[in-house]
Amino acid sequence: MRKQIMLIDDDIFLLNSVSNYLISQKFSVSVFNNAKSALDQLSKKIPDLIIVDIMMSNIDGYQFLIIIRSNQLFYDVPVICLTAKGMTKDRIKGYDLGCNAYLTKPFDPDELLSIIKNLLKYNVKVQNTVSLTDQNRVDNFQKSNLLYVSLTEKEKIVLELVVKGLRNKEIAENLNISIRSVEKYVSKLLNKTSTRNRTELAQLMIKRIYKGE
Asked: Burial, 200: exposed, middle or buried (Cβ in 10 Å; 0-12, 13-18, 19+)?
């Protein structure tokens, strides 16, 4: 059976060229030009490997990694990040969030193929279809997508920092905004998630929604 690869990039030319190349190498490829559509598909079918671009609108590659790596259904799926960025700090961020390999555009298709084969060789096989026993976790994953997409870009950034355990002062320094502004963002997040405090907010996003508990 052909290995299933999910390819996500808002560059249509890259989608077509890379998918055609991978198909010629006997892979089955599903393509998406935005992360939201890809996340919707993940709730129905789990691929053997994901290739995702970092620089995309709405939900970028980093945010996509945060979502899938916080859900046990997709925790073991290998992820290759593609980006035009080549700075060390950007690569480190990708690795810290759970990507398995990092390729800077433009890249050699043969190098991509080599990385894919290596990751699939050592990765524990993931079931391609979601079983009925996983339905509750799938439902929670879909709810988390809807909630995440409903947030503004700034709210998403603040939420990610809250989940990482940063305090309001640290978030303010990180984003170069006032502590009062951080408090307003956190307050909006609490209202949208019906949680009482930042600790409960972080626990909700990590345990009850992302991990499907």
From this structure: middle
